[in-house]
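Dear Dr. H.,

I hope your travels went smoothly. While you were away I took the liberty of generating a structure for the chain from your last submission, since the lab meeting agenda had it listed for discussion. I wanted you to have the full record in hand beforehand rather than looking at slides cold. The sequence, exactly as received, is reproduced here:
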Amino acid sequence: MAILKVARLGHPVLRQVAQPLDPASIRSPAVQRFIDDMIETMREYDGAGLAATQVHTLQQIAVDTVTTEPFYPYLIEREDNFKLYVFANRGQESRPRDMAFVSAIYSGGTWVWRSPNMQYEAIAAHGIVDAVAAAWDPVHNLVVVVNDHSGTPSYLAFTLDVNDVKRSFNTPKFVIANNDWGTVIVDPVTGDYYLLFMETIHDTVNGRACYTRWNGTAWSDFVVLDQSSADVAFQVRSGGGPVKDFIFGRGFDSGTVQIHYARIA
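The corresponding predicted structure, in token form, is as follows:
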């Protein structure tokens, strides 16, 4: 990468009109190298953003570090054909509520990534407490995905078959104030889905541990697993098996936090 010459305030180039960039050329080595140089130049000058015109290039290209945002990805592999899926929801400060998606086909001993879909699912929730979760359904050979439905006490839920055909079966709106920390467990015998979540209170991220069950036809009423209002986050058991085990936290980051183990019979 190189440090580019920056035009100072008042330079005539700053009053010239930049030309549109052909979208097909964005991924070209020349354009990508130029963008890398712009980023290096911006950092050299302790800047937060930089336009191509400022470095004497009349192209509609800009780099920006102010509005960048994190993604919270979930990676899962299909067990029937080894295809990889990555689902990702946006950072807490993001305005968009779109879920991003990209897949990779296993071929010739390696994975070949396809083009990402940055608007795969609309009005998905954002932030780490509402991160997307997924699980493998060995009974029906499906990938199951859940994510908080932004602005409502409910969840987006859908499956992907071997051809990536999506079937949605969103939960109803629960009679609760708010929901966070959603994740999913698949019963490897029955193929039922158990969506775990916290009924969070007001503006906190703690609440009561709950779950709802999908039996292939409808979601059940939610069941309260633990009455404590200080529960937070879930981690489900990995490695399969007939039991539905998981752990969750209890407490706050300003005090003692306990780890609790639970099982759905």
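Two observations you may find useful: The chain has a mean pLDDT of 88. The first strand starts at residue 49 and ends at 51.

With kind regards,
E. W.
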